[in-house]
Amino acid sequence: MSLGIPPITIDGGGMGDGAYSFSEWYEDGTDGYKGPQWALLIVLALVGMHRS
Questions:
Q1: pLDDT tens-digit profile of 28-47?
Q2: What 3-state DSSP class applies to 12?
Q3: CB 42 within 8 A of CB 10
């Protein structure tokens, strides 16, 4: 952000508000496990899967 590049946010699976601010908050709730799974899927999609 300090370089002027807009950040992206990934839904963490829970509830939250105020991302990238001093008033940011997050609560896992019952779907909190989904955040790390979604992050891994995004990374895998960006890297791509190469077939031999």
A1: 888 788 888 888 888 888 78
A2: coil
A3: yes
What span, in angstroms and rounded, lies between the C-alpha atoms of 3 and 15?
28
Residue at 30: amino acid letter: T
Sole residue written with tokens 């946010």: 9
| 38 within 8 A of 11, measured Cβ to Cβ | yes
pLDDT of 23 higher than 90 = yes
Alpha helices in 1-52 (DSSP H): 34-47
**What tokens were used for 35?**
């955040």
pTM above 0.85, yes or no: no
Place of tokens 């790390």: 36
Smallest CA-to-CA distance from 33 within 11, 7, 16, 9 is with 11
